[in-house]
Amino acid sequence: MEVIQVGEYKFDALNSCLSKDEQVIPLDPRLLTLLTFFVENPNRIITRDELQLAIWQNVIVTDNAINKLVANLRKLFCDDAKNPQYVKTIPKQGYVFIAQISAIEPKIETPEPIPKRTEVTNQVQLVSSRTHTPYFVAFFTVMILVLGYIALYSSSASVFGDSAALSRFYGGKGSPIVTQDGETLLFLNHRQQGTGLWQTAVNAGNATLPKEIKGLPSFGELLFADSSKLMYRVKAPECGWYVSDLNLNASTVSADSTLLTSCNTLKIHWSLYLPTQNRLFALGHDKHHEHRNTLFSATVGESLQALNIELSDKWRMVSLDTYQDANKLLITTISIDGKTAVFEYQIDQSILTPVVELDFFSHHVIWDQAREGLVYTTPAPDSKLVRMDLTSREQTLLSSSSERLCCTIARHPNGVDYIYLSSDKNIDVKWLKTNYWLDNSSVIDSNPALAHTKEGHYFLSNRAGLTQLYFQSPNSPAALVPLLDDYYMIEKMALSNNDEFILLSESHRLLLSNLNERNSLQSIFLDGYIDHIQWLTNTLFSVSMTYQNQRYVEVYNSNLQRIARLEAPWRQVLADPANDNWYYFVDSKRDLYRMPTDRIFTTPSVDTGEYVGNLPMYSKLKVDNNILYLVSEFGETLSRYNVNGDIFQPLSEEPLNAYLGFDVKEDTVIFAGKETFRSQIYRTIAR
Fold first, then answer.
1. For residue 520, what is the DSSP state?
2. Secondary structure letter of residue 640 according to DSSP
3. Per 3-state DSSP, what percentage of the chain is helix, strand, and coil (rounded to 5)?
4. Chain segment 368-390, per-residue pLDDT in tens
């Protein structure tokens, strides 16, 4: 292609550059291909599929990769997407190259006449030539060697920037591992209905779509797989690491499993398997030491043993990495002030050495392919996959995304690329019916609770990087309520009827604070998992628990003292703030009973309770003004039932998206619903 005029620029495809006003702008290979394709196809809609075929040779890449490439081309042209002069976006269709294009006539220069050579001139030239020949030869020899070295170095160095999606379907992706032969990627897909095991080809561009592997109903973490065996961890009924027969051709895993090592009473957050040593490593803790992980190890088949690691209380271990023949672990830790520290642990000598500290959260840091650097993700909104050289501390961009990249990274078996995950949730607080403006962030705002004595609502948000409590009054911005002074994983929240106390829960811990008193946060750990929390009075609340497959209810006061325990069949106790004469009890069959409030301190039974009705499967319940509000099992609908007197009557059912909590006051419903949720598995494509 000859040099052509493109708008105000000259495009020289042969020399891979643009130029304007004698300023040369080099083009990398992908930008060159994109611009060439645009120039050859002006003034028509070019679809994303066409660009994918022309530029990536049909390798499936993310929409973000295409968007970024087009944006980079616009940037070179100083083009405004809102008022384009070069590339125009056609929503939901593609792009049109609208720049004026014309050929540039080459300049034909008349050569200057060659002067006549005299004998003297020739003699001088010959002497000069003979004099400098050795220098020219030496110079060109050196240049050839230098250029050869550069060419060799350039050919071996990989250029990153592109990525390809290995999954494109709904659900939260996690725990990616590659089979021992390097051909298949296994990963978990989490949905509200359960967790599934999936497989796909590890190399991008393969026409085979991901397949679900049928068999076991639930997995907690994948550790190792070859052509016939799968090693994994499950949380229940017995926490432990298991192995099952795997058939990738049939996409099945055997329901028969063998327990290798038990988790006992620990809660495990991360584990890995080192095949060369047949050894497990795990980060976990007793359920009474939430988020203070200990490093455990065991030869497969034996019991876990805690390893002695001297680590400052500032840091909390969150993830591990190793490689096949390693005698080292890479331990990622995080702190309450939003930093990450990476340590190297020498297994045989029990020596912990600091490696690097980052000024942001990165939940999984791994060694790079050459073990000469680290690979990690940076926080949203401009989330990136980055490599840091451990010698120079220089950083190299491997991939970038408009999605939040988190929380697991793996080395690709080709020895160059990396596999990584996105987990991008935007959960907003919403009204079921229009009410005052809500101050939502672009991250996770959850567990709204309507105030009883004033207008406004409390909610949880991680907009500041850590989960914090906020309060918003009508038509005002949300204000931070200084309460949480540590790293918590809050799952539920409830507000007392007089707005004095806020109750929070993690999986195994209750946290209670008096909103009128600073530094009043107190907490206790509980045996079992916390399913529901509900205020009964201004000072009493109920906690629904599950422990070793047994369900029961405990009642606590505002000093976190347990004052009652209701054994099976009871699974939940609720109160109506508008009626202090009754409590509502739900049993294991989801039968609803009504009893006087003092019955909670005795031994309530189905024989002494007033039967109200049977409830459908649900995830959340509230009672307000003699109306029962029931959120369906997966949060899709809200149903109302009249529970006044002897009547149990369905009143209405309407769509809802109560993903992370809801509340109601005088039939005003507020809830936390998913605005967006993107989670996929990607791989880098190095060139």
1. -
2. E
3. 10, 45, 40
4. 999 999 999 988 767 889 999 99
